[in-house]
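PROTOCOL LOG
Step 1. Enter all chains and additional molecules of the complex.
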Amino acid sequence: METFEVRTTSRTEYVEITRQVCEIVERSGVERGAALVCVPHTTAAVTVNEHADPDVMSDLMTALSSLVPRHGSYAHAEGNADAHVKAVLVGSSALLPIEGGKVVLGTWQGVFFCEFDGPRRRRVTVQVLACGAAGR
Amino acid sequence: METFEVRTTSRTEYVEITRQVCEIVERSGVERGAALVCVPHTTAAVTVNEHADPDVMSDLMTALSSLVPRHGSYAHAEGNADAHVKAVLVGSSALLPIEGGKVVLGTWQGVFFCEFDGPRRRRVTVQVLACGAAGR
Amino acid sequence: METFEVRTTSRTEYVEITRQVCEIVERSGVERGAALVCVPHTTAAVTVNEHADPDVMSDLMTALSSLVPRHGSYAHAEGNADAHVKAVLVGSSALLPIEGGKVVLGTWQGVFFCEFDGPRRRRVTVQVLACGAAGR
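Step 2. Run joint prediction.
Step 3. Record the structure below.
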């Protein structure tokens, strides 16, 4: 398993991590399989969506903030309950297929780290799984 | 990795793909493992939910449309920002366990392709992962 | 694949299942890989989030109920359409990395079963995937 760091600079923010993930997969030497990208955090998430127009991810962050308001009738005393809810809705991991030693992504797809309670130093882990002997 | 095509006929629509996924897994010869079902698109998604009553998936599509309205204050100029947000909420992949050479699904579970910006020709990929030598 | 049971006692409820998942992984003997945790149900889900303060998961359940109201204009006649929608938003599975024979979770992360249409007897399955021979 490999780990890399992401530094965020505001409370909500997305950071593209496609390059880091692809490099780890290429270094692994795995020809066919899948790459599990995880955040070991509970107020951040990982997703796969459009990387061509930055407005798309920015609209996503805005839409999430209107779905899950920052100040609501939350019991959690730290004031970041909204960040936990957003993290669950987006998900703490993504699994990407590997073929020919490379991550398979659609033309418009990129991998994104989503920060919901920054700014912070965050970590992302990548575990590369091979298809296995029986995988023809 | 195998790929198959899904054709959608309206803007939002779900298409059951359980049979195609199960056939690919059976052809793979993998006895124990997991099947990674992905859409290489950013305005479509994959999910696992009830296949017995079509009203369930249809209610899901309606509920998503009321959570994420088509026309909001989005920055993305293509007019399909809502479709990207829905795709992230549902997710671009599903991972299904394989045991005894077959996909393991609950009695009521089916695998569904979700279209949020059709009609289009779409692709679905399936990567079959074996448990591996150390998986007892 | 291993299976264990979860009994829920109210309509919406979360149950921490981290211990059961970790024990299955340790028994499997897999040193490096990933554990696929699934619910074979369509009105329940699995997620990874904070286990230290129970208010976090309880706020999540409340936030989901306000996003997806129990009584809306649903077509599904069983009266639990909201539970299906919540199950899709949270997701029916989680994939956790394994390293050194153990599940890798962040300091604050736990694994949770989410009930959206209880009380019921539910099942959770865990399929342990090894990294495979080519996974260096």
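Step 4. Note key features.
The mean pLDDT of chain A is 95.
Chain A has one domain: 2-135.
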